Each structure stands twice: as C-alpha cells, then as structure tokens.
Amino acid sequence: MTDFQVSSQQTCSLMAQTPAQKRALSYALTIHRLFTQIMDSKQPADRVLAHYFRENKKHGSKDRRVIRETLFAMFRWWGWLGKTLPIQSRADVDSHWLSVMLSSALLEKQSWPIVIKAWGELANVEHELITHSNDIDTPLAVIKNLYPEIEFKLTELLPESFWKHHALDKQNSLSLVESMSSRPPIWARSQYAETSYIIESLNKQDFDANKSTHFPDAINLGHKSLNLNQLKLYQQGKIEIQDLASQTIGHVCDPKPNELWWDACSGAGGKALQLTAMMYSQDTDRKGEVVASDIRKQALDELYKRMQRAQVNHIQIKHWASEHIPVPIEHFDGVLVDAPCSCTGTWRRNPDMRWTDDLSTLDDVSALQLDILTKSSAAVKQGGRLIYATCSIIKAENEDVVSTFLANNPEFNLEPIINPFTNKEASTLTIWPYEANSDGMFVARMIKA
Question: Where along the chain is S-adenosyl-L-methionine bound (predicted)?
Fold first, then answer.
C-alpha cells in the first residue's frame, strides 16, 4: 500500500490525560503532519524536516531526535505499517495512527520508553504486547506479534514497482531488503590530512570514528547526527561527507598524476574534489586538473564554496548550458559521467523516496542517460578512460545503458573491475548496500581504443 492522499485538514480524536500522554500526542501530531506533507508533496523528507526545525525553534535536541527518528522509521517500515492503517484513519491522528507510530518505534527498538508507553496507552495497546515485542529479535517477528491477523512479507518493504525491474535471486533480494531496512552509517573522506590524525581528532570530540578496511581515506562516523558547522575539521576542508559507495567511484576512476579529468555531471562536486585529492596525493607539483560541469548552476555554486573551504584551485567550473558539451573533444585522460537516475541506491539513506519516487518513467531516464554518456564520450582522448556511474540499482539504468552505448561506439571497450568489497572481478560493478554497508551504486569503466 503506497498511495497516500490526504485532502482534509488534520484532526485528532484522542484525549491525553497525563503530562507524558500530552507530550507523546504532541509528537504524534507533528509527525503525522510531516509524514502527510512529504507523501503528498513528494518533497524530500530531510528537506521538509530541516525546514520544520528552522521554523520551530521550540524543540530541544531530545524532541528533535524523537520526531526525526520516528518519521524516518515510519518510511522505512511503511510497506508493512501502511497495511495496518485503515484509509479512513489517514487524515486523523487516532488510535490507528498511534499504533503505527508505536509499531515503528518497536521495530527499531527506539530508546524513549516514556513516549512509547504513552503511545501504547493512547492507542489502547496492551502493555504486555509492547514488552513482549522488545524481547523479539527480528522485525518480521515483531510486526507479526503486533498484528497476528495480517500477513507480512519482507519484500513488501520495497515498493512493487521496484521488484518489476530487479534481477536478484531470492537470497540476495532478502539481503537487499534487510539492508534497506537499517540505518546506514555516515561515511566521510579525509583530504589533505592523514586519516589517522582525522580519526584521532574526531574520537577526542566524542565521535565514534573508525577507519575503513577498503580505502585509506574513508572514515566510518557511525550513526550520530553531525552539526558540520561546528566541526572544525570540516570547516578547514580536511574532511568531506561522502558515502562509501560514492567514494568507490573515485577509486574506480583511479586518476594519475598530471592527468586531465572531466566530471561531466558533477553536482555539488563531491567526486571532483575526491579526484583532485587523489591526484594531489601522488603529485606534489599539483599539475593535474579536473573540470567540473553540471546543468544546475546552483550545484556548481555549492562546489565553489567547497573548493574555497578546502583551498583547492585546480578545479575548473564550466556550466553545461546547451546541447553541446562545454569542453574540448578528445582532450581528457578521463571522463566521469555520474548520470542522473532514479536514485534507488539511496533508498536506504532516504527511505521516503521509495514511496514518493515514480519508476514508471525509467525508459525516458535511460534514454537521457545514454544521450549524456554518448555526448560526454566525445571528450575522451585515445587511450583515455570513460567512467559511467549511477546511484541506481536497476539494470535498465546501468548494464542496459552501457550495453547500448558499447554497441553504438565500438571504439570503447569495457575494462574489468575488482569489487573492493568481495575481491571478485567483473565487467561492471554494482555496489550493494548489504556488501558495503553503504548506499547502492553502479559503475562501469571503459577504455577508448
């Protein structure tokens, strides 16, 4: 059940008696309003939530945590929770809605017992049922314990539209669902500083920072929320927040000293900064250069700010403002095309997107991806590398686009890639969340003969 349209004004049929119940009901009203706004407007949940907190300064850190984590938990488990909610209850904060919020808290073993107890009281859920759920290990067993009359399947935690496009066997499908139902860690990358120094400094500031076993500059920051504006290492440009799957793309590019690279769809420039840092770590003369382009001027403005913070001046910014590529043809040692896509690989970090995204336009998306890849390939010089990447885990946007491109451009050939998380060689690489504890991404590396 993924449709969620609420046209009537928010109402509440519950009466809180105790201070704990009043506080819990206030949370419920806020979460319901935010959830409804996100589902109806299809705006990103993190953006809606950030705007709400900016406009409502009354919430302390504990309030923000309850609201944020419950909201995202509801999206994470909505494939099950939506089945328990009668359609007539969707515009009303009633006992059914309180049961949904209570269930999301129990599924994630959330640690605010007073609020959970009050939600149970308002929803008329037996306290023994709540206590028993806390003793159950698996989420599927928890939801079956709460709603024994309803049948639940793990695959329901991702929308039916996704399963129409997937090519995984049963075991890997279940592994994908299980990973998508857990919170990913925050991944960072050290730049222009020793990783050991960064980790030591973060640990002194009470961050649970650990070095990755896969890449020398990757850092796992755990699940603690970060205020980057208060993190001195970030303000000094010594650390960038970048998911491990995204970092993998830079290592597949493997830029060499003195090379010229074009990041054709750079966005805010995380990979352009990474490519530059990788080249500079091998070349103290800093003769290599990266050109970053995007059709979105605002994203390039953000890249400029990040360059200033990191004191990087070897990235040229060129706005891609027409049908023609903004760089010379046959000029670059490497071209990275991180193409716009469905973003299904980010559903673990952004669980709301699995219920608000529209996968019915994949044919149009894949046609756009092929067009961008084809145009960008003209900038690769002979012997140069062409990297195609997406944050999608759908074959139509990945292997199918690459296959069509290669059929139309025989001067390019796939170069095998070693999967850093499995050590297996493959013609293309899909980074699965359950293998890397990260987002999902796809990457192919091609050489121009």
Answer: 294, 338
Q: Is 341 considered catalytic here?
A: no
Give residue 211's pLDDT band: very low, low, confident or very high (50, 70, 90): very high
In angstroms, the CA 263 to CA 279 distance is 14
Q: What is the pTM of this model?
A: 0.92
Sign, CA torsion 188/195/259/420: negative
Report whether 338 belongs to an annotated binding site. yes
CATH T-level assignment (fold) for domain 243-448: Rossmann fold (3.40.50)
Distance CA 9, CA 224 (A): 35
Instruction: Give the whole-angstrom CA distance, residue 75 versus residue 351.
Output: 5
Task: Indicate the CATH number of 11-152 among 1.10.1660, 2.60.40, 1.10.3470, 1.10.940.
Answer: 1.10.940
| Residues 253 and 279 sit within 8 Å (Cβ to Cβ) | no
In this prediction, residue 136 has a pLDDT band, given cuts at 50, 70 and 90, of: confident
Q: Is 371 annotated as a binding residue?
A: no
Terminal-residue alpha carbon distance, the chain: 50
Tell me the CATH class for 183-241: alpha beta
Kindly list the distances between the CA atom of residue 34 and the CA atoms of 14, 71, 79, 98, 382, in Å, as whole numbers in the listed order.
19, 8, 18, 15, 52
Which of the following is catalytic: 253, 265, 341, 391?
A: 391
Rounded distance, CA 82 to CA 266, Å? 37
Q: How far apart are CA 242 and CA 434, in angstroms?
A: 18
Angstrom distance (rounded) from CA 26 to CA 70: 13
Q: Which of 410, 447, 415, 411 is closest to 428 using CA atoms?
A: 415
Alpha-carbon span 105 to 301, nearest angstrom: 39
Listed in sequence order, the residues at least 6 apart from 164 whose beta carbon sits closer than 8 Å to its beta carbon are: 359
C-alpha–C-alpha distance, residues 397 and 379, integer Å: 22
* Closest CA relative to residue 34, chosen from 56, 1, 57, 61: 56
